[in-house]
Amino acid sequence: MRIDFNEIREETVKEFGGGKGCLILRKTTKNRVTFIKAKLPAGSTTGMHKHMIDSETIYVLSGKGKTICDGETEMLSAGSVTFCPVGCSHCLINDSNEDLVFFAVIPEQI
Which residues pair with 54 in a beta bridge? Predict the structure, then answer.
């Protein structure tokens, strides 16, 4: 299965999950797996949210920031990966002066 994010309409979500600022993303779902390429602008955050029926793997393409997953803070930068298992809560924080660009895979757990 090939996905070309250039062919997917970009959307801007303000205050994603109760966060601050916005999240700019392109996403598609295939076979109960959601694929996202997103940009979290400088100073923006996603709200803390729980993955009830899925997990999420995030690969940072560029920029810096951090994630909090079940109370544990991890620093993120280009080339790093973070994983939020099903049943856990997490958020992303861009506390840098540049955009945090990432690719995420969210498979629904069966």
Answer: 108
* Look-up of token digits 């002066």: 97
What single-letter amino acid sits at 54? D
- Band the pLDDT of 1: cuts 50, 70, 90: confident
User: Is residue 100 within 8 Å of 85, Cβ to Cβ?
Assistant: no
pLDDT digits (tens, 9 = 90+) for 20-46: 999 999 999 999 999 999 999 999 999
The one-character DSSP state at 81 is E
In 22-77, at which residue ranges do the beta strands (DSSP E only) sit? 22-30, 33-40, 49-50, 56-62, 64-69, 72-77
Residue 55's nearest CA partner among 12, 90, 14 is 90
Rounded-to-integer distance, Cα 22 and Cα 77, Å: 19
- The amino acid occupying position 27 is K
pTM of the model: 0.94
Q: Which residue has the tokens 């930068």?
A: 77
